[in-house]
Amino acid sequence: MPALRNRRGVIAIFTVLLFLAMLTIIAVVVDFARMQFMRNQMQTAADAAALAGAVQLLRTPRSAYVAQAEAFGGDNQLLNTSVVVSDSNVALGNWDPIARKFNGGASITTADAVQVTLHHPSSFLMANVLGWVPKQIAVRSVAWAGPSASQSNCMKPWALWFGLLRAKLDTAEGKAFDPSDTTSLTQEDLTTLQGMSAQARTFTLFLGNTANGNNLNPGNFYAVDLPAYYTAATNTYNPQIPGAQQYQNTLQGVDSNGNPVCYQVGVGDTLATETGAMVGPTRQGVESPGVCDQVVGTLCEDANGNPPVIKSAFWTQATNKGSGKFMAAIKTIGSFSLTNWDQKGASITGVFQVDQDEGPSGPGGSTLVKVVLVK
Questions:
Q1: Which residue in 286, 281, 311 sits closest to 300, CA to CA?
Q2: The whole model's pTM is what?
Q3: CA–CA separation, 314 and 194 (whole Å)
Q4: Taking the domains of the chain in order of start, what are their residue ranges?
Q5: Band (165; pLDDT cuts 50, 70, 90)
Q6: Is 166 helix (H, G, I), strand (E, B) or coil?
Q7: Nearest to 274 by CA among 214, 348, 177, 207
Q8: Is 119 exposed, middle or buried (0-12, 13-18, 19+ CB in 10 A)?
Q9: What pLDDT score does 211 carry?
Q10: What is the three-class DSSP state of 236?
Q11: Do 186 and 173 meet the contact criterion of CB atoms below 8 Å apart?
Q12: How far is CA 361 from CA 147, 186, 333, in A?
């Protein structure tokens, strides 16, 4: 009998030890899951904050990137409490796409990336009973407002000379302008464009007549047919010749039935111009209302009283065109604010800008950029 009692005592001891082991395992599993849950919530907040800050770098004022990062990061929850993003958590810098590295310390005029780093002590449940010391949870996110969009929707049927933009950038960068230079825009160019004054980015063009003369005029903008005559992404040709009414509809962003429509244009596409100066259809497309919700004198305004943002294609060089239509090879796509429309002189005044877009990233830099999480 004594032997049996001893065995029962051993089993009791093993039971207690097994219970403690199971409790330890449960503590590890529960608290590890809790830490991962906290980390995921913090990463979501850091991603939102970094994206918001990078988006603000494409807007005015750029210096509001910290406030935007803090606001959007704070909209996220961490264990039922709002995440706190402070000034010290947000860093400004440049993203190196080759080395995949964030380089901090950039000025507000040259920065193209925002980094957000968050720290928070882990919140143990069962491990506290075992006397474990809470660990620090750290997450980091970098958003880059840099990669160019190679295609874009809702383009306006206007074609501008690429050299017009290139000349503005070369002047700002202290380079000699070469009209034959068709080098794609670089990240340096986009950074330069963002740092230039509105006056330095302003241009005025007159509506070009494609029916007379043999030379393209770099001082003209030209009416073009959409959809594109040739689409590089699909290697397809579109034989459609829309005509004046379709051109006017495209300016207004509608189809022949008045329904909203957007046409896509990308780098490498070819656009066919309309014959003649197309002053009448352009005037109707701009004013009825169309591009401009209202025209006050020569000021072009949208529904909120601001200059509307125009996305247009830029052809590469001024070559002989012959009479009638000519084909414009698209070097890049760009964005500008249309500030003035002179219906008498059929001229437009705009301000080049870097604008956020949802198009796919690709070669052939444009002033339309995407904001993406890169790290």
A1: 286
A2: 0.78
A3: 19
A4: 2-147, 151-370
A5: very high
A6: helix
A7: 207
A8: exposed
A9: 67
A10: strand
A11: no
A12: 6, 13, 12
